[in-house]
Write a structure and sequence with these properties.
The protein is of the alpha/beta class and about 450 residues long. It has helices at about 10-20, 30-45, 45-60, 60-90, 125-135, 150-165, 175-185, 195-210, 230-245, 265-280, 295-305, 360-365, 380-390, 425-430, 455-460, and strands spanning about 90-95, 100-110, 115, 140-145, 170, 190-195, 215, 220-225, 255-260, 315, 320, 325, 330-335, 350-355, 375-380, 395-400, 420, 435-440. The strands form 4 sheets. A 7-stranded mixed beta sheet has the order 10-13-14-9-8-15-16, sandwiched between helices. Strands 5-4-3-6-7-17 form a 6-stranded mixed beta sheet, with helices on both faces. It has a 3-stranded antiparallel beta sheet with strand order 1-2-18. Helix 2 runs antiparallel to helix 5, helix 4 packs parallel to helix 5 (about 125-135) and helix 9 crosses helix 10 (about 265-280). The longest helix is centred in the N-terminal third of the chain and has 27 residues, at about 60-90. It is globular. It starts with 9 loop residues before the first helix and ends with a helix. About 45% of the residues are buried. Bound molecules: nicotinamide-adenine-dinucleotide. Nicotinamide-adenine-dinucleotide binds near residues 148, 194, 195 and 217. It comes from Sphagnum troendelagicum. Belongs to the aldehyde dehydrogenase family. InterPro entries: Ald_DH/histidinol_DH, Ald_DH_C, Ald_DH_N, Aldehyde_DH_dom, Aldehyde_DH_NAD(P). This is Aldehyde dehydrogenase.
Length: about 450
């Protein structure tokens, strides 16, 4: 249904939402709290239905559904409910001498009517977590879920109007045609999650109306590891970071490993053992491993694996079954850097391992690539940690783990350069949908006459 959903009357939809926004209803603290509670209620009451949709779309286990989507969303709602008053309170700031007497305030105000366009790999949280920010900020919103996760898109389209204010929060299903119609309109904010190619389309459409955008894009997140770490712990964290979130189909999954030469054999054998410990001798039978999202992505991934540059570099896994969209957790060793798999975001269960001489070579390799969404560094050497932090640029970083920065609501989450612009999570979500309006309240008791012409010599001496 999602991709062939009927086209909405976009101008009419937008003017309805604009009327609601202009009425001022969404700006009140009461409305924001009520809608945040309604969202929380929907997530809690509909856990089973959400689980079914995610299982249909991606084969996600109940555990992964809860830990990677619902738990985070519940935390976000609760934090926004708890912090809303504080976030909404205008901030008093210092004044310039020339303005005495006065008071200077920064008052957050909602951008207006926002469009949230989300991706398929975490189709609940990527649609609803930005919604938390939009509601908290006081915006009216349209959510356009990904058509590539049709069961989840249908769930959102059916249930959001049941729980939430239909005159202010709408879900529009559909694919490119639908988005194109929506993007023709003037929005006050567009929040997009997806790939950088489409990100450029979104930004170009937004530019016509000078609409501000947040672009949550992807990229190839590198992971550097050296021999100073506790190998067993590191291997567990790498395996769960790669295959535990949507089977490698996560924007923050480690894309490839950069490994100190002498350490490669030990790391490989521990990674292999850990994969078997987690997913069994035949991961195809594991209930804890999601599947590839659809046939197109299955074909894309198997073509990368079967490329002559790559096919003989498989050191673990490589098995696949098109019917069930299964590709085994697969390790590759020293694929040539010009191989197709090293030149696009893998976004699937394949993990290339590249041998490097040490941290300097890893830093050079990272710098040669577009800025990633995340960099992971496994080392207990503080000097190397500092080098990696200060000499590389990325949306975020985790030292001695992978992926987990996503769950810290105190850390703004977003990309830089090719991996995106803007950020969200926690207070940053509120900020993403708010304009910080500067207001100077002037008193009238003091006048500086030198301000006014005629500018006599005497005045100029003051
Ligand atoms: P996708 O195909 O679901 O597309 C994302 C959205 O863009 C969808 O709603 C889709 O309808 C829309 N879209 C697709 N083609 C379009 C077009 N031509 N014009 C206008 N809109 C269009 O998802 P995807 O882009 O394949 O998602 C995967 C990418 O997203 C990866 O690069 C991944 O790293 C990135 N991602 C980033 C984050 C993040 O938080 N930074 C999260 C998840 C995914």
């Amino acid at each position: 249904m999602a991709s062939d959903a009927p086209l909405v009357d976009a101008p009419e939809l937008l003017s309805e939402l604009r009327r609601t926004f202009q009425s001022g209803r969404t700006k009140s603290q009461e409305w924001r709290l009520e809608q945040l509670h309604a969202l929380l209620k929907m997530v809690m009451e509909q856990e089973d239905e959400i689980g079914k949709a995610l299982s249909l779309d991606l084969g996600k286990s109940a555990y992964e559904t809860y830990s990677c989507e619902l738990a985070l969303l519940i935390d976000s709602c609760k934090l926004a409910i708890k912090s809303l008053k504080k976030w909404m309170t205008p901030e008093q700031v210092s004044i310039a001498l020339a303005t005495v007497p006065s008071t200077a305030m920064i008052r957050p105000e909602p951008f207006g009517v926002a469009l949230i366009i989300s991706a398929w790999n975490f189709p609940i949280i990527l649609a609803l977590d930005p919604l938390v920010g939009a509601i908290a900020a006081g915006c009216a919103v349209v959510i356009k879920p990904s058509e590539i996760a049709p069961a989840t898109s249908a769930f959102l389209s059916k249930m959001v109007p049941v729980y939430m204010d239909k005159e202010a929060i709408r879900v529009v299903e559909g694919g490119v045609q639908q988005i194109t119609a929506l993007l023709d309109q003037k929005w006050d904010k567009i929040f997009f999650t997806g790939n950088a190619k489409v990100g450029r389309i979104i930004m170009a459409a937004a530019a016509k109306h000078l609409t501000p955008v947040t672009l949550e894009l992807g990229g190839k997140c590198p992971l550097y590891i050296d021999s100073t770490v506790d190998l067993k712990v590191a291997a567990k964290r790498i395996v769960i970071g790669k295959w535990g979130s949507s089977c490698g189909q996560a924007c923050i999954s480690p894309n490839h490993l950069l490994v100190e030469e002498s350490f490669v054999p030990k790391l490989i054998s521990t990674l292999k053992k850990t994969i078997v410990d987690f997913y069994g001798e035949d991961p195809h039978t594991s209930k804890d491993l999601a599947h590839v999202v659809n046939k197109n992505h299955f074909k894309r991934l198997t073509a990368l694996l079967d490329d002559p540059s790559t096919a003989d570099k498989i050191i673990h896994g490589g098995e696949r079954d098109e019917e069930s969209l299964y590709i085994a957790p697969t390790l590759l060793l020293d694929v040539p850097l010009d191989a197709p798999i090293m030149n696009e975001e893998i976004f699937g269960p394949i993990l290339p391992i590249i041998t490097v001489k040490g941290p300097e070579e890893a830093i050079d390799m990272i710098a040669d690539q577009p800025k990633p969404l995340a960099i992971y560094v496994f080392t207990n050497d503080k000097v190397v940690q500092d080098q990696m932090v200060s000499k590389t640029s990325s949306g975020g970083m985790v030292i001695n783990d992978a992926v987990l920065h996503f769950v810290c609501t105190s850390l703004p989450f977003g990309g830089v350069g090719e991996s995106g612009m803007g950020a969200y999570h926690g207070k940053a979500s509120f900020d993403a949908f708010s304009h910080r309006k500067s207001i100077l309240y002037r008193g009238m008791s003091v006048e500086v006459y030198a301000r006014y012409p005629p500018y006599t010599t005497k005045k100029q001496q003051i």
